[in-house]
Each structure stands twice: as C-alpha cells, then as structure tokens.
Amino acid sequence: MGRVLVMLTAAAAVVACSVATVMVRRRMKGRRKWRRVVGILKDLEEACETPLGRLRQMVDAIAVEMQAGLVSEGGSKLKMLLTFVDDLPNGSETGTYYALHLGGSYFRIIKVHLGGQRSSLEVQDVERHSIPTSLMNSTSEVLFDFLASSLQRFIEKEGNDFNLSQPVKRELAFTFSFPVKQTSISSGVLIKWTKGFAISEMAGEDIAECLQGALNKKGLDIRVAALVNDTVGALSFGHFHDPDTIAAVVFGTGSNACYLERTDAIIKCQNPRTTSGSMVVNMEWGNFWSSRLPRTSYDLELDAESMNSNDMGFEKMIGGMYLGDIVRRVILRMSLESDIFGPISSILSTPFVLRTNSVSAMHEDDTSELQEVARILKDLGVSEVPLKVRKLVVKICDIVTRRAARLAAAGIAGILKKVGRDGSGGGRRSDKQIMRRTVVAVEGGLYLNYRMFREYMDEALRDILGEDVAQHVVVKAMEDGSSIGSALLLASSQSVQTIPSV
Ligand code: BGC
C-alpha cells in the first residue's frame, strides 16, 4: 500500500512538473513574442522621431525648395504653381454664386449669397456626397457627366428662387483639388492625378472646358467662371473674414498649401500682370521631398505599392488617405511576426481597409477597456485581443499621427520663413522687432475632425516658432472654406454681376 502511494505521489509530481514546464515554456514563448512586438514598436518610434532640430531642418528645406520652385519651372519638387489670383475677397462682394468642389473623397455643391458685407454672407444650400470608387478610375466623360448630372439635380431642386422674369445666367466656381497648370483664373490643364484617382484621357485637357462641355450637353445655362485649387478657396475664405490671412493649408485626404507671394519674387513668371503686386502661389507641397524626412520601411512599402510611386512623398506621410494604411501595415507586420493578434486576418492584408477616421477613433478612445479599439480591430478580422494589445494599437496610431502633425507644422513654419513671418529676420522683412499678426487658414477633415492631430500640430508649431513669435501666428480652422471661398473668389473677380441679389 505504502509503495503504491509513493509511486502515485511520484507520478503526480512528474505530471505536475511537466505541466509546469509546458506552462513556463509557453509563458517564455509568449514573452519572446511580446518582446518581438515591442521591438517592432520601438523601431517604429525611433524611425518616426521628429525632434525639434530635425523639424527646423525641414523648415529650412521647405523655404529653400519654395525659392527654387519660384525661380524656374521644374527647379524644385515643389511646383509653386501660378494661380492668377492677385486680389482676395474682402467682404464687399455681392451676388449669388455656385461652387462645385471635387475633393479627394467627397464632392460638394454649394450656393452662396453675398450682400456686400462680411456679416451678410449666406450659404444657402450645401450638398455633400462621397465619390464612388468606380468614378476614380473611370474616364473623363464619365467623371464630368456625373458632376454635371449632380449639379443639374441641385439646380432643379432649388426651384425658381430668383423669381425673375428674365432667364438667369448662373456663374460657377469649380474647386478642383488636384494639381493644375493654370492659364488664367478660369482655365488650366491637369498636371497629374493624386489621391488614388487615375482617370485616363485627361492629360493636356482644360479642366474648366471639360466641365463646361458636360454642362452644355445637359443644356444647363451655367458658366464655369473660375477654376480654383482647394487651398486657394480656403485662403479666399480666410481672407474674406480676416485680411491678415496670407496662407492656407489643406489637411484632408491629401495635403497642400498656398500663400500670397510678391510678384517680383516669382522669377519664373516674366510678366505676371497683377495690379496688387502679389499673387497666390499653389505650392503643391504634397510632392515636397527631403532626405531628412523620417521615412520608415512602412512608408517605402506603401509608396512602392501605390499608383504614383516616387511621387507625393510628403503627402504620403501626412495625408488622411495614407495614415490609416501606415497604421495597418504596422499591425500587419506585428501579426505576421507573432500571434498576439490571433490568426492572420486576410482583411488586415487589404490595402487602405483601415481609414484614418478609424485611426482617430482608436487614438481618442477614452473607454477604460478601449472598446472602440476592440470594435475596429474586429472589423479588421482581429477579435478578442487583450487590453495590452489594444493599448499597443493606440500607441501605433499615436506615433504615426504625431509624426504627420509635426511634419505638417514644419510645412507651415516653412511658409512663414519664406515670407519673413517666422521671426528669424530672414525673407522679405528684416526687421526682427516688428512681428505682424499672421493668419493661416486650415481646412480639411484631418485637422477639423482629428483632435490629436490638431493638438500635436499646434504644439509643434509653437515649439518651432517659439512663444514670442507664435503669439502673432493664428491658425484658423475653416470648415467648408475651400468651397465657399471659391465662390467668394469668383465674386471678387467679377466686375459685372450676372445674378441680382436675392
Ligand atoms: C493635390 C492638391 C490638393 C491637395 C488637398 C493633393 O493631392 O495635389 O492639389 O490641394 O491634395 O486636397
């Protein structure tokens, strides 16, 4: 009996030992995997670092590239496009105007009424639609026919608001959020598509003419009287409300900036023919490039797999279209190198499946269990991950968004440096003592809807400029500024009003 007991006890001890060994091994394996994932996170964090010194180098590089782009065509990756806009709205405009805005993921139609005073600006109708993906890869005929039909429906809905005995000639501003080589304020040729658009047969076509042709085909009596980049629309809106506004930036699906430049500084333009002595320049800063940009292996992969590789390098680090995909690529790498995200999800392997609005929702998830993170991961085919893994995902969002926001701030500071408003005494004004109030209008969902992006950007701009200078610089959010501003610009460029005030 005693022997049996001893044997049983020994057997139980052996089993307990093996169980313990398995558990210890498992735990060690788990720890190894966790360490691997933490290593990936650490590498990401290091690669995305944007210390102040580096940001200041970016500021200098942007100002230098701006200068080079103004000297000669093709002198820089920054196209520094002429807009032929030399007078910005000031509040005295009158009349009723339309704007059709083709952005990166939405298009909008608006109608604004101007009564000759800032306070009498009335946005009478706004319609917003997402752009069907099929349209982004269609033909120019399909695209412009779609835009013309949408405008036709919009106008049919408004009825006869004007209540006129004579027929009304409507005037439209076309806010076109892609790079265009303008030939006048109302005409220009597409340079290239960005933001995932790839519509054939457009090279060399005049964008305003294409839209006008489609409107004529529908028998619509509307004149496309202005062709406006979205940044220029935002600047016009900003200037309408506040004459100290000298630059505008869009942080949306894509990113870009424009600013008011002295015509004598635009050396590549021999005869700018402006009355005000300045002209708005569309920088197309999405294409900015510097070897000092903190680029990671995820950026390289994203660029290589994109439709426009080796192009729009800056936009691919700061644009709303791309941030979600960078985060997705990091999560995918982690999930391939360890099983902390469970079995590899095929959804997670799909490019652009994680949108930046989901990144912001995860980043700003304030529930104690990070339920929003869990919900979004579930949509990506990753379910039931522990809290510590959810926290890791939040950290990834933070690193990617913080880098974007700080680079964006460096971009703004670069413009301020170029125009001598960064307090350095360089640029056009050498008097360091006199700091003029400077307003930068900002438009775009990334800035307007993503609080953490906004906070990181504002903070970095203050750090770069220093408190003394930063107190003179106002960054103003302008919702719908691009569309409304284009209509205002059209109004200010018209000497004869075609629609009487309502
Ligand atoms: C386009 C710019 C546009 C920006 C913001 C970029 O992809 O090239 O023209 O202003 O997106 O919409």
Radius of gyration, rounded? 27 Å
Number of strands: 13
Fraction of residues in helix: 40-55%
Strand residues, percent: 15-25%
Q: Report low-confidence residues grouped into runs of 5 or more.
A: 495-502
Would you tell me the structural class of the helices and strands? alpha/beta
Keywords: ATP-binding, Glycolysis, Kinase, Membrane, Mitochondrion, Mitochondrion outer membrane, Nucleotide-binding, Transferase
EC number: 2.7.1.-
Pfam family, one: Hexokinase_2
Subcellular location: Mitochondrion outer membrane
In terms of topology, how is this protein built?
Elements: H1 2-47, H2 52-71, E1 81-82, E2 94-102, E3 106-115, E4 122-130, H3 133-136, H4 140-158, E5 170-176, E6 180-184, E7 187-190, H5 207-217, E8 222-228, H6 230-241, E9 245-251, E10 255-262, E11 278-282, H7 297-305, H8 315-318, H9 320-337, H10 356-363, H11 371-379, H12 387-418, E12 438-443, H13 445-449, H14 451-465, H15 467-470, E13 473-477, H16 481-493
Parallel strand pairs: 2-5, 5-8, 9-12, 12-13
Antiparallel strand pairs: 1-11, 2-3, 3-4, 6-7, 9-10, 10-11
Helix pairs in contact: 1-9, 1-12, 2-12, 4-5, 6-16, 9-10, 9-12, 10-12, 12-14
This protein binds beta-D-glucopyranose.
Residues 103-104, 177-179, 194-195, 229-231, 250, 252, 254-256, 284, 286, 315 line the site of beta-D-glucopyranose.
Short characterization:
GO terms for molecular function: ATP binding; D-glucose binding; hexokinase activity. It is a single-pass membrane protein. By secondary structure, the protein is an alpha/beta fold.
